[in-house]
Amino acid sequence: MTPFELVEPSSLKEALGLLDPDDPSVRPAGGYTALMLMMKAGVLKPTRLVGLRRIEPRYAGIEAVGDALRIGATCTLARIERSEVVQRELAVLNRALRTLANVRVRNVATLGGNLAHADPHMDLPPLLIALGATVVIAGRGGEREIPLTELISGYYETTLESGELIVEVRIPKRLARHCVYRKVTARSADDWPTLGVAVALDVVDGTVREGHIVLSAAFDRPTQLSAVEAVLRHARIDERTVARAGDVAAEEADPIADAHGSAAYKRELVRVHVRRALRQACGLQPGEARA
């Protein structure tokens, strides 16, 4: 690695002041996990790292506020995983984190860093997008809040401006009851996924009022399937609907061929696992209609 300066400010204001919007070699650092790997590989050569571990504790907090869960950007993934508030309000998030990388990574990796990294294989972005999460972003000019769908713009790319930081994630709870994240891996459960499938539904009396289907890993960014969502809207949850949704998902998805498999193989994975995720989200057995 090339030499660099490390500074760890004690406040968000100080951290924003240390970032230089005109110098891309000055970079923020959350848990340092992905960042250090990129530096060791020579992909990233910062002149200064602005560490965020020592800024105000409120940016590492977890709090249920009204109909949403507020999680600070410097909160570690392990803390989210073990949080009683998360277990009570958004258990699907707790379950998804158990197979995200390994415990050593989760102990230091942060939520804000995970989202800002924008690796398309990450487990959290598709799940949080399906739940309707928003991110609060701070810069020298103040704060702005955007849907998470607008944050990740491409392969390792975000819409963050130079000198901006993610400070908070807000996750609505209204779709948590019928929400599932499925991770398809070729090796161990905590491996990089070949495909990620997140499903979040609003189901009343066996009929879908609203549904979100988001795929990841087989694409250059989390991909929302609007055609499948249209099929589910106002539909009765039964095996016929589930089968149709899987077929439409396979038609709509445009996966990337790579070492994990061909595009045709991944398209079939989409068909199978969208169906399984829908059944799981609704507690439906094959051939059963949901009363």
Tally of separate helices? 11
How does CATH name the architecture of the largest domain? 2-Layer Sandwich
What percent strand?
25-35%
- Give a count of the beta strands, DSSP E runs of length 2 or more: 14
CATH topology group of the largest domain: Uridine Diphospho-n-acetylenolpyruvylglucosamine Reductase, domain 3
| Element-level helix/strand string | EHEHEEEHHHHHHEEEEEEEEEHHH
Cα shape: globular
Largest sheet strand order: 4-5-10-6-7
Output the CATH class name of the largest domain.
Answer: Alpha Beta
Helix share, percent: 25-40%
Question: Radius of gyration, Cα only, in angstroms?
Answer: 19 Å
Span of the ends, CA to CA: 60 Å
**Count of separate structural domains:** 2
Structural class label = alpha+beta
Mean pLDDT: 95
Uncertain regions spanning at least 5 consecutive residues: none
Sheet with most strands: 5 strands, antiparallel
What does this structure look like?
- With 291 residues, the chain is α+β, with helices and mostly antiparallel strands.
- It folds into 2 domains: 58-172, Uridine Diphospho-n-acetylenolpyruvylglucosamine Reductase, domain 3 (2-Layer Sandwich), CATH 3.30.465; 178-282, Enolase-like, domain 1 (2-Layer Sandwich).
- It is 33% helix and 25% strand.
- It is built from 11 helices and 14 strands.
- The protein has helices at residues 12-18, 33-40, 77-82, 84-89, 91-97, 103-108, 111-117, 124-131, 226-232, 239-252, 263-282, and strands spanning 5-7, 26-29, 48-51, 62-65, 68-72, 134-139, 142-147, 152-154, 157-158, 165-172, 178-184, 195-204, 207-216, 223-224.
- The protein has a 5-stranded antiparallel sheet. The chain has a 4-stranded antiparallel sheet with strand order 11-12-13-14, sandwiched between helices. It has a 3-stranded parallel sheet with strand order 1-3-2, with no helix packed on it.
- Helix 9 (226-232) packs antiparallel against helix 10 and helix 10 (239-252) runs antiparallel to helix 11.
- The chain starts with a strand and ends in a 9-residue tail after the last helix.
- The model has no long low-confidence stretch (mean pLDDT 95).
